Hints:
Elements: E1 14-18, H1 24-32, E2 36-40, H2 45-56, E3 60-63, H3 73-86, E4 90-94, E5 103-106, H4 107-116, H5 120-124, H6 128-131, E6 139-143, H7 158-171, H8 179-188
Parallel strand pairs: 1-2, 4-6
Antiparallel strand pairs: 3-5, 4-5
Helix pairs in contact: 2-4
Amino acid sequence: MRGLKFSRRVDKFLVATSTLPEDDPIVDLLRDNGYQVFRGHHLDVLDRIYKASSLYGADFVVRITADNPLTDIGYMDEAVLIAVLSKADYVGIVGLPIGMACEVVSFRALKEAYLEAKAPYQREHVTPYINENPDRFKVVYIKAEEGLKELRLTVDYPEDLELLRRICKRIGDKSFWGLEDLKELFRNDPNLFLLNRDLPQRDKFDVDEGWGG
């Protein structure tokens, strides 16, 4: 969260987490440090984000998932600017390492997805319904500069978490993080990234077993 405050385009930050008791400690920690928190459905993330956005009167929503703590702030701001200037319903980023990108969604598109998306994967992963209906929504993609897009900086496995811990130890107190920092780290220690190199990436159809069926 510290690094996100360097954004020049985002007005407000909000953590939208679940109402499950196991999330109580993170909620307490966030509130103790002055962050706003919204709590909602633990599986239906689309429901959670839509209701949080409604409560705070958002025009555009920047979605950064908790398993992507090293989101590139520069590309995030570029995506927000493009969304506003082009009146896009969705702006995504392609070409970044897994775990550094984010999504920008208009509230209009988010509301339509909330009302109409039915499949569990559309509800849990929030934006598939929008991307699957380009005839109804204006979808734009930013192409990141070439370099290191094969690396994993998301957290799905224990090896991912260990890598992120090692990277954060290298970063230290540096709050601002981006692709150029990653390139420098990779140049200095490419073997660091072997830790999770061969792990498979989840796709948009993977959902939590709690949905049933």
